[in-house]
Design brief:
Elements: H1 5-25, H2 31-51, H3 63-81, H4 87-107, H5 121-141, H6 160-179
Helix pairs in contact: 1-2, 1-6, 2-3, 2-4, 2-6, 3-4, 5-6
C-alpha cells in the first residue's frame, strides 16, 4: 500500500498480531471461535503482507494476481460458509475488498497511488461498509453493567472479547488500506 513508512509498519504489526491471535483461536474449545478463526487469520496475515510500505519493499508483479487468487478463493469459501452462518458475509466482503485492492495495485503502473483521481465508487462503498462495521463492532466492545453470563473462560483462545477487538482492529486496518488507494 502507499503511504508513509512508519504508519505502514504499525499497520503491518497490527495485522500480523491479529493474524497470530486468530491462529491461537483455532485451538479454542469453543466451536464458534474456531469456525471463523482461520479466515480471520488469513485476512490478518494477508493485510499485513499488503501493508508493507512500498518504499521498503515493492512486491514482484506476480504477487498481486496471487493475492487476487488467494482472496478470491477465500471469498468463495466465505460465500459457501454464509449459507449456515451470516457472520461469513462479512468475511465475503473483506475477501472481496482484498481482491479489489490486489486488482487495483496490479493495474497501477509502478504501483503509484491514484491520488487526485477521486474516490472510485467501489472504494467509497467499501469505506462506508467498513466504517459502519467498525462503529457497530466497537459498540459491542463496550461492557454492559450488571450483565454477567456465558461459560467461564479458561484460556486466551476462548476470549470472545479479544476476538471482537481483533475484528475491530482488522476493520480499522482495512479502512486505512482503502484510504491509501
Amino acid at each position: 500500500m502507499h503511504g508513509p513508512a512508519s504508519p505502514g509498519w504499525l499497520l503491518v504489526a497490527l495485522c500480523a498480531a491479529t493474524g497470530a491471535y486468530c491462529l491461537l483461536r483455532l485451538r479454542s474449545g469453543v466451536e464458534e471461535q474456531r469456525r471463523a478463526a482461520g479466515g480471520e487469520a488469513l485476512m490478518g496475515f494477508g493485510m499485513a503482507a499488503m501493508a508493507v510500505p512500498a518504499a521498503v519493499f515493492t512486491p514482484p508483479s506476480w504477487a498481486w494476481p496471487l493475492y487476487g487468487v488467494v482472496f478470491g478463493a477465500a471469498a468463495l469459501h466465505a460465500l459457501w460458509a454464509a449459507r449456515s452462518d451470516a457472520h461469513h458475509l462479512h468475511h465475503l466482503v473483506g475477501a472481496a475488498a482484498m481482491v479489489y485492492m490486489a486488482v487495483v495495485m496490479a493495474g497501477t503502473p509502478g504501483h503509484a497511488s491514484g491520488h487526485g483521481s477521486g474516490v472510485a465508487p467501489l472504494t467509497g462503498a467499501l469505506l462506508l461498509y467498513f466504517t459502519g462495521y467498525v462503529l457497530l463492532s466497537g459498540v459491542r466492545l463496550v461492557p454492559v453493567p450488571g450483565v454477567v453470563g456465558g461459560p467461564p473462560v479458561t484460556g486466551w483462545a476462548d476470549r470472545p472479547e479479544l476476538a471482537r477487538a481483533c475484528r475491530v482492529s482488522m476493520g480499522i486496518a482495512m479502512l486505512a488500506m482503502l484510504l491509501t488507494m
